[in-house]
TrEMBL record:
This is Glycosyltransferase 2-like domain-containing protein. SUPFAM superfamilies: Nucleotide-diphospho-sugar transferases (SSF53448). It comes from the Bacteria. Residues 6-117 form the Glycosyltransferase 2-like domain.
Amino acid sequence: MDLAPIVMFTFNRLEHTKKTIEALKKNNFAKESEIFIFSDGPRNEQEKLKVNEVRKFINNIDGFKNVTVSESEVNKGLANSVINGVTKIINEYGKIIVLEDDLVTSKYFLEYMNKALNLYKSRKDIWSISGYTPNIEIQREYKDEVYLIKRGASWGWATWKDRWKLNDWDVNDYVEFKKNKKMVREFNLSGSDMAPMLNDQMEGRINSWAIRWGYNQFRQNMWTVYPVKAFIKNIGTDLSGTHSAMTNKYDVDLSERMVELNLNIKPNDEIRIAFKRKYDLNILGYVAIGIKKIGLYKEARSLRNKLIKLFK
């Protein structure tokens, strides 16, 4: 099989990084795969020690065909790190599998991703492959082991060069989009959090590559292939990361077998509705949007996280 390179992004979480690598090493095809690890630089002097601990570990990784580590002297932030790192590797290899440092994989993750990349390459309506799926209700009549959603997942994913190059990271048509209520409603068909996140991005309240990637997928009218059973589990929802939050809403059990892929998979509206419910904003989500708009989100989030840690 023609295996895609793995690209992993790390920062300052040694224990999470160790768990991610150890799980990945147990994967079928790990020993035959190349892995490129991008280590972002510290934001301040206090972070140097943690970043250096991670770098000491990743520079001594084995269990793969080849390990290449790129260390940044400055802090690029996750968005710039992902956009630049993925672009560099995908331009050379034509396809890519992407992980961050807080994702534990099923032993079948690499097999699933590589087989899906090879199978769905010919389908130009497929934007990406997701290794993660939220726990959603799948009707008994649904016989396939994958499904389609017009929203990508940033927790373990894969794509091809010809799709990646379609991204407009500046979102040059945002003003036009924002004024078009029909388009906004359609963008939110895979979760009412989508348009508010894009708005936060364009107004400078967040710095996310993923929401821009999701918007470009929407504009291209393309699908992401999801497994019915997850091959990825996020262990970063413990307040340890820059963008993490304490929640078990997206917790999953990992698949213990490979799934059967269907080249001619078609969208299912009942699954889309169940998926949308998982990502729709609740009352706290709308409150958070309001807090962001008045510029107090970081303070409110910091207080919330302190209270969660206090009462754990």
